[in-house]
């Protein structure tokens, strides 16, 4: 089958690291144009300063991938849907829940496919953890998602601005795994959010979750951008039936009772684009807002702490 033409909006870090190389080597899509405020291009395809310019010049491109920071995603995605495009959204899908719900409804009204991606969900080890917890029940989940912000977000000022999510930018990846593997819906019961005195978003957050489960499993998350050295992206899980699971490497590896059960090369974006091709073929959207809702709830019930100023 011929590759489908796709345009990429925003040629920042994740576009360069994942979207472009993954699309280029895959069989489903062909990057036919890009939209870059800085005027970057890719393999000589046309580059436009705005999406409106792209839609006017190349109406034959029916699919866009929106890889900007989250605060501008809603306006860009809505403009794309209005122009009759199918849309893939990087995570987080919007800056607020109302924006997210609006996109979901607008895509449905327009009859267009909308795919709110959660890249960390696209790991075989996550699927296996989900299957094991469905079978054995959940005793506890302890999430530790700690990384050095200077290593993973070098110079990205938007992460510290309102709508930039702060440490929830990586934390929402952990939450996307959390909601996928749990056989029930978690609620944020309490949160402590630690803000650098010179910044608008948290550098660290500790969350405690509840649920409607009678056994009240212990569920916690520790997000921190002040980690030095290697990142720690892992979850320690006890199944109700006694098994111990360790999901680590950002969801790429799973140990069960101390033994490696699944470790696959990280192909999150390969799986994302394969899933997108399936969604386009079936005309269905995939829009789960639950990780975003947990972040919003942490902001609603969170206690605020202030720490020393952050400088790059
Ligand atoms: P980034 O390096 O800052 O890149 C974002 C790009 O979006 C900018 O370089 C710019 O590209 C474009 N952009 C910025 N403001 C815009 C605006 N107002 N209108 C249109 N385009 C605008 O950020 P990133 O790390 O790639 O992150 C982007 C998104 O991907 C975030 O939501 C993040 O959570 C997610 N993500 C990032 C990573 C990662 O490892 N960095 C991993 C997974 C997901 P142009 O100058 O080319 O227009």
UniProtKB/TrEMBL annotation:
Task: Name the top EC class.
Answer: oxidoreductase
Q: Does the keyword Cytoplasm apply?
A: no
Q: What is its EC number?
A: 1.1.1.48
Gfo/Idh/MocA-like oxidoreductase N-terminal domain residues are 5-115
Q: Organism's domain of life?
A: Bacteria
Give GO terms: molecular function aspect only: galactose 1-dehydrogenase activity
**Does the keyword Transmembrane feature in the UniProt annotation?**
no
UniProt keyword terms in alphabetical order: Oxidoreductase
Q: Which InterPro entries match?
A: Gfo/Idh/MocA-like_OxRdtase_N, Gfo/Idh/MocA_oxidoreduct, NAD(P)-bd_dom_sf
What family is this?
Belongs to the Gfo/Idh/MocA family.
Protein name from the UniProt record? D-galactose 1-dehydrogenase
Q: Which organism is it from?
A: Kaistia defluvii
């Amino acid at each position: 089958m011929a590759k489908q033409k796709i345009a990429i909006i925003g040629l920042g870090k994740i576009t360069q690291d994942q979207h472009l190389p993954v699309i280029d080597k895959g069989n489903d899509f062909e990057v036919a144009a890009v939209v870059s405020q800085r005027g970057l291009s890719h393999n000589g395809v046309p580059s436009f300063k705005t999406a409106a310019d792209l839609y006017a010049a190349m109406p034959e491109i029916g699919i866009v991938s929106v890889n900007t920071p989250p605060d501008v995603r809603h306006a860009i995605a809505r403009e794309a849907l209005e122009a009759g495009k199918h849309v893939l959204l990087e995570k987080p899908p919007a800056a607020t829940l109302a924006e997210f719900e609006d996109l979901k409804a607008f895509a449905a009204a327009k009859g267009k496919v909308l795919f709110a991606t959660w890249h960390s969900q696209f790991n075989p080890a996550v699927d296996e953890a989900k299957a094991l917890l469905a079978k054995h029940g959940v005793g506890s989940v302890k999430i530790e998602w700690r990384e050095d912000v200077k290593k993973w977000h070098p110079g990205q000022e938007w992460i510290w601005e309102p709508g930039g999510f702060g440490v929830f930018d990586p934390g929402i990846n952990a939450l996307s795994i959390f909601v996928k593997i749990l056989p029930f819906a978690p609620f944020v019961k309490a949160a402590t959010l630690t803000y650098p005195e010179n910044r608008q978003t948290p550098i660290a957050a500790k969350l405690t979750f509840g649920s409607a489960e009678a056994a009240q499993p212990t569920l916690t998350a520790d997000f921190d951008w002040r980690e030095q050295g290697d990142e720690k992206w892992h979850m320690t899980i006890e199944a109700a039936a006694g098994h111990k699971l360790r999901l680590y490497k950002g969801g790429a590896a799973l140990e069960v009772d101390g033994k490696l059960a699944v470790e696959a090369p990280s192909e999150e974006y390969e799986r994302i684009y394969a899933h997108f091709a399936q969604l386009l073929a079936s005309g269905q959207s995939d829009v789960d807002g639950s990780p975003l809702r947990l972040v919003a709830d942490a902001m609603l019930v969170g206690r605020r702490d202030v720490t020393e100023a952050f400088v790059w």
